[in-house]
Amino acid sequence: MAVEVLMPKLGLTMKTGTVVKWLKDEGETVKIKEPVLEIETEKLSHEIESPADGVLLKKIAVVGEKYPIAFVVGYIGQPGEQISAPAARTAAPAESAVSAKSPVPAAVNTAPEHGGRVFISPVAKKLSAALNLDYKLIKGTGPNGRIVKADVQKYADTCCMAPSLAPEASDTVIPYNGIRRAIGVNMLQSWTTIPMVTHQVMADVSALLEYRTMINRGITEKSESVSINDLLMKITAAALERHPSINSSLADEGIILHKRVHLGMATALENGLIVPVIHDANRKNLLALSREAKDLAARARNGGLGPDELQGATFTVSNLGGYGSVDLFTPIINPPQAGILGIGRVMDTAVPVSGEIKVRPQVGLSFTYDHRIIDGAVAAEFIRTLMQLLENPARAVLL
Fold it and tell me: In this protein, which residues make up the domain named Lipoyl-binding (predicted)?
């Protein structure tokens, strides 16, 4: 009997997956747990494995199309076996080409219901105001036609984009979908709904570099060496533990102070950005944190991360120092987190020391925070703690 290949659920927030490519052709032999096709969600790429031994009898899903969770994307069975796919299980993709190309009719309310009154959630109303949208034109999908946050986001994304310049024959068109589109939606939401403030400072890392050299002398395997970024993340975790109001998020029920520190580690990919998470970073020793950071970064670039490794961050660190060209920048908060720390390059800088000008290695720190949750004085205290720990890194590492 033919076995269904289903679109998996790869995380709490996943609703659909896009088929990137089939790895097997119809009639080709497959082994159980052998990858048969590659899909992409808003956060990661994933290979769907065969649920049984046999051959790929039928491809249902089309490359480039989006399908909901549990949709039958194909069938595995024995050579020559006939299948009869129920129509309900092989219906149209999650978003048809018609709706994708003609978003306006689906998004516009031509006649408000309930006697002209438009129902909208407070969050959706605030977002529509921030985006300068007339929410009366948005079709609500909530109870009784109530406009919810997702409706505003969809309307803004599909109906309110500036007119685009038609590509010329010599231009290259890169699809704006998958991870790239998810980043855009997330950043737009963050930029338009969060009052962000960035504090920037140059911090002395003389002691940090000396401490790193001392630690690495005792490490025989070069691959196990501790990087500057490892130390900076460990110090950040220690500082967050001391400042719970920074390690927080805003929810409907109020401001949540997270006791556990789950550090998001912004990692660049060819097609965008991904943020794997070091869970309980404040409870891990330096070497354990270093190994996990290296492992997560490597698997992020190879598409080998699981859903749990991309969820739950309470604070994010974005390090652009490795490019050697950035000192300070303005990182954007990853909602619902309350802050993000941007790290620039380490460079020798002439600074006054006890009335003399001396050269010291310094690193640029850019701390962006949500001003609804964090006041300027609290942010300044957090930065001061970071600088103190940089001057005495053993205090953070030995905590």
Answer: 2-77
> Could you give the CA distance from residue 397 to residue 399 in angstroms, rounded to a whole number?
6
End residue of a domain, out of 41, 65, 93: 93
Return the ∠ at Cα 202 (arms to 194 and 332), rounded to 5°: 20
Residues 270 and 211 in one domain: yes
Helix (H) or strand (E) holding 116: none
Contact 208, 227 (CB under 8 A): no
Contact 234, 395 (CB under 8 A): no
Q: Output the six-digit token pair for 4.
A: 């269904």
Q: In 3-state terms, what secondary structure has residue 259?
A: coil
Catalytic residues, by residue number, are: 371, 375
State yes or no: pLDDT of 70 exceeds 90: no
Helix runs in the chain, H state only? 97-101, 103-107, 122-130, 149-159, 178-193, 206-217, 228-242, 286-301, 376-391, 394-397
Higher-scoring residue by pLDDT: 331, 93? 331
Residue 2's nearest CA partner among 88, 61, 78, 80 is 78
In this predicted structure, what is the pLDDT of residue 322? Answer: 92
Angle at 378 between CA 340 and CA 186, to 5 degrees: 25
Mean pLDDT is lowest, of 89-103, 130-144, 151-165, 244-258, for 89-103
57 with 186, same domain: the answer is: no
Dihedral sign of CA atoms 217, 222, 228, 234 in order: negative
CA of residue 116 relative to chain centroid, distance? 39
Q: CA angle 232-263-331, nearest 5°?
A: 75
> What is the number of domains present in the chain?
3
Domain contains 170: no
218 plus 345 within the same structural domain: yes
Is the same domain home to 207 and 261? Answer: yes
The answer to whether residues 261 and 296 belong to one domain is yes
